[in-house]
Specification:
elongated; 323 residues; binds magnesium ion; alpha/beta; 52% helix; single chain; binds uridine-5'-diphosphate; 8-stranded mixed β-sheet
């Protein structure tokens, strides 16, 4: 079995959204490195409903390279969906996920694969630097990670989507039915024997990051809610705090009444009304958000919809040729 594992096919999943110029570059770079290292591989581009020529670039690349495959979404479903689609399509004994803008250094995939050969089932890429980013982005990312780390009880600040997973781990992830899956957290949550590989985030060569601050906030809220019911406990906590305040204020009001100075305090009444009113609204909002999520899961819609697929022409024994 060990022997078999050493020869295992590696699927590299590359989610791509408006990455036309990066496609050929990523395909050539990753494939060359893996071939050089003697790793049998396939490259799986998932076009996440791009609006530029990404799909044409994937098709062109598949025509040129037999190890390239591609699937295309009917519209943009987001990176998480693209990762899961790629994993679902992967035929390998293990699968790596990496950004196709080459911000995840491809040579690390070789290192991850070697660890997999040693028997690790989940190999996580751990960021040692965040590359060049604007400060607002860094701040937003930092806030998000401290929130999600708190919610999960695991330090996520250095986690990334750059991972290599054994077939067992891939199948475990795919068997999870939740629609709001958060790949980088779930792949740690499933456990298995885990190794880490440190990498430096590379500067982006082409185009721009697809994340606006708005999309980051949405991403943060969705994933925290997907992973934790802690915000619901905030409701209880707020209730307890307001109750304590009302006991104190109640005693104070009674004391004022019995000492005959009760007429004052109209401002207090207004302030209290506003205060309690807004806390109730916030709490209803939090509860409503979770009900919305339950509704979404209940509808059981697919995570993504495939529109097209393409596959490199495979001559007989071609896959072995890349060895
Ligand atoms: N991506 C995607 N769907 C999206 C947004 C991004 O598949 O809706 C892909 C993108 O093409 C890239 C990866 O996810 O390969 C990371 O995106 P990006 O480089 O924009 O994010 P950053 O590196 O700044 O975190
Ligand atoms: Mg990037």
């Amino acid at each position: 079995m060990d022997q078999e594992k050493r020869q295992g096919l590696l699927s590299v999943v590359l989610p791509s959204y408006n990455e036309e110029p990066s496609i050929p570059r990523a395909a050539e770079a990753v494939s060359a490195l893996l071939a050089q290292a003697g790793i049998r591989h396939e490259l799986l581009f998932v076009d996440d409903g791009s609006r530029d020529g990404t799909w044409a670039a994937v098709q062109a690349q598949a025509a040129r390279m037999p190890q390239v495959r591609g699937v295309r979404f009917s519209r943009n479903f987001g990176k998480e969906a693209a990762i899961f689609a790629g994993l679902a399509q992967a035929r390998g004994d293990c699968a790596a996920v990496m950004d196709c803008d080459l911000q995840h250094p491809p040579e690390k995939v070789v290192e991850m694969y070697r660890l997999w050969q040693e028997g690790y089932q989940v190999v996580e890429g751990v960021k040692v630097g965040r590359g060049r980013e604007n400060p607002l982005h860094t701040l937003a990312a930092r806030t998000f990670y401290s929130a999600i780390s708190g919610a999960m009880g695991v330090d996520m600040s250095k986690a990334s989507d750059f991972k290599l997973l054994d077939r067992r781990a891939v199948d475990t992830l795919l068997a999870m039915r939740e629609k709001n899956a958060f790949f980088r957290a779930l792949s740690s949550w499933i456990g298995f024997s885990t190794a880490q590989v440190e990498f430096e985030v590379q500067p982006r060569l082409e185009g721009q990051s697809k994340w606006s601050v708005r999309s980051l906030v949405r991403y943060a809220v969705t994933n925290i809610a997907a992973f934790s019911a802690a915000p619901l406990q905030i409701v209880t906590l707020l209730g307890a705090v307001v109750f304590l305040c009302s006991v104190a204020l109640g005693l104070w009001s009674l004391w004022q009444k019995f000492t005959g100075q009760a007429l004052e305090g109209f401002t207090t009444v207004i302030l209290l009304q506003l205060f309690i009113g807004s806390i109730l609204m916030v709490c209803l909002g939090i509860i409503g958000y979770y009900i919305g999520k339950i509704y979404e899961e209940l509808k059981d819609r697919p995570r993504y919809i495939l529109a097209e697929q393409c596959e490199g022409e495979k001559e007989h024994g071609q896959a072995e040729k890349t060895l």
